[in-house]
Here is the input.
Amino acid sequence: MDKKYVVIKMENKTVQRILVDNKIEGIYIFKFNNEEGYVQVKNAKVRMLCKKVFLFF
Here is the structure.
């Protein structure tokens, strides 16, 4: 399986590339600073528990 990454822009404008741990039904799950986040591919929204991030393709 190909490795997949999400690229996120943090609130402080830094950009991070994060390896996706898992993909379940169009949702990519990844870990960032020990927090789990997920990306819903349909609407390209990134959800994090504590951080506001934005997804770029």
Observations:
- The longest strand covers residues 15-24.
- The radius of gyration is 10 Å.
